[in-house]
Amino acid sequence: MSRTHIEKNTVQETLVIPLYGRKLCTEQFPGLFRDPRAVELIERIDYDFSAMEKQSKTLSYRFGALEVAMRENDLMIEAKDYLKEHPRAVLVNLGCGLDQTAENCDNGRCRVCNVDLPDVIAVRNELLPPGGRVENVAADLNDLSWFDRIDASDGAFFLAAGVFYYFKTEEIQRLFPAMAKRFPGGRLCFDAANRRAVKIMLKTWVKEAGITGISDYFSVDSIEKDVLPWLQGVRVSGRGYMLGYNDLRDPSVPGLFRLMARIGDGFMKMQIVRIEF
Length: 277
Hints:
Elements: E1 4-5, H1 16-28, H2 36-43, E2 45-46, H3 50-55, H4 59-85, E3 90-94, E4 111-116, H5 118-127, E5 134-138, E6 156-160, H6 169-182, E7 187-192, H7 195-201, H8 203-209, H9 223-226, E8 235-240, H10 255-266, E9 271-276
Parallel strand pairs: 1-2, 3-4, 3-6, 4-5, 6-7
Antiparallel strand pairs: 7-9, 8-9
Helix pairs in contact: 1-2, 1-4
């Protein structure tokens, strides 16, 4: 079987970081999380993983992998909850990368639409070709014409993992109300953090991109102050994404990680935000 080559220092390289995190978490915390497809995909990618393998021995990297896995687990819980009332809904994975959260929620009747930039979808089409009830859509989320590709006649659940940190607040303030207007009865769930945490997350990326206005990027210190004022007529709620859905009381999880999870959910306001259109 031929392997898909991914170059270093490209947008496509960002796909392998969360993918490797899910593989690592599957191996180290199997009682909490399993993603055998991530393990399989790593084997099909031609990429030098040696740096990640070396880092995977560190506590910080292992905790980062746990964060990635818990975020995916939380979004799966939210998606399955929506499917209980809308079993034929479309699950739309925004900024999907190589993530298969939507496919992992398949109830045999729902549809899946994975949306990301063209060069990302090109890799996804090679590794995870669409078919049946799954569609891959190449689009810039800020170009709202991608709305036309979403058949929400039976409901629509939108999820985004690790995506909106890279959006400016003004872009989010345009995107979310437009989604609410276009997809009434739909639901959007995504991970967010406060300004302090976003600054830490984006530090390297912002420096490389030559960006100085870090405060322009979307963060949520308070749903009441940072979301509700510009998103009227909808229900918005949030739950800590490390401990809000799972208490992490598994023998494979070090006690230190549970402490770090409390700090993340509390001090850094790491949460899953749910918006019901």
